[in-house]
Amino acid sequence: MKLKKIGFALMSLVLILTMIPAMTSAASKLSIVVEVNGELILFPDAKPFMDKSNRVQVPVRFVSEALGAEVGWNSKSKQVTVQLGEDTTVLTMGKKAYTVNGQTKQMDTVAQQKQNRTFVPLRFVSEALGAKVIWHKDLYSVEILTGLAAVQKDKEKESESNSVKDSLKGSSTSRSIEGETEKKVTEGFSYYQSYKSGLFVNSEYEEYKKEYGKQAIVIQPYISFSREGVNYTQQVKDLEELLSQKIDAKTVQAIMKYVKEKTKRDDVLESKEFSDGKYRIEVASPFWDDVYVAVWYK
Fold first, then answer.
1. Which residues contact 219 (CB under 8 A, 6 or more apart)?
2. Distances from the Cα of 113 to the Cαs of 30, 49, 121, 162, in angstroms?
3. Signal peptide span per the entry (predicted)?
């Protein structure tokens, strides 16, 4: 009987291992969808792909045909020049440095050649031309807005930002705001719900501990990237000060080291758990989202 169990386990392992390449292959063939001002762009041969830096690369021909720019190629210097109106962008194959109207900037990826085609990082080129780029992770698609569509998007964002500000002002009587009200205290953690830096701290522990006990979240601070006017550096300092009140220094140091890996809204922090003798702390940040920190009792 024991030999049969071992044999069954080995067979299961073999089946799992043989399925992994097929699953990986299927995932790698998932097509990236690109829309410009609501119009679906077709790529009959050279397809967009996600590079090692998690950036969408598109064939340079797309830039000229879909965005209306003029594209030039210098085979000696291996440089691509993209010009639209008065804006000129120059990228060099394999180099992170590029120029926009003569000003040198840095990417976190590079333009590259693949299957005898030249590919450029979509976001950096599009934004250099004044377009808005929105990545929809769940749909595996890119939305590009140009001209009036981009202006309208900016107006929508401004309206949304003002709505958030008005909402915060309206709830000032019940919300603890740095510089305006006293701090709140939850299980020994002293904090403001809204910091000047943009850090926000949520806690409904008193309400939920009756039902969930120690499974209820004690505090849940998050570093905001989604609102204008926030101070990332100060948010990090405020978060560290808050966690240091009750969590041991070594654990806080490890948490903050991981938190600091995200400096831009499109960086991703996979869910990661930390713990000391009393608390367990989870840190996560999806693509194009805030950094969320949750503190529980162990």
1. 186, 187, 189, 191, 201, 202, 203, 205, 242, 295
2. 21, 12, 12, 44
3. 1-26
Token pair recorded at residue 41: 């762009």
Beta bridge partners of 222: 200, 292
pTM of the model: 0.47
Largest CA distance in the chain: 78
Residue 267 CB-density burial (10 A; 0-12 exposed, 13-18 middle, 19+ buried) = middle
**Tokens, residue 52:** 């090692």
The pLDDT tens digits of the residues spanning 161-188 come to 454 445 444 444 467 899 999 999 999 9
- N residues, the chain: 298
The CATH fold assigned to 33-152 is Copper Amine Oxidase; Chain A, domain 1 (3.30.457)
- State how far the alpha carbon of 99 is from the alpha carbons of 18, 36, 106, 109, in Å: 47, 24, 8, 14
Question: Low-confidence residues of the chain, pLDDT below 70?
Answer: 1-30, 148-174, 226
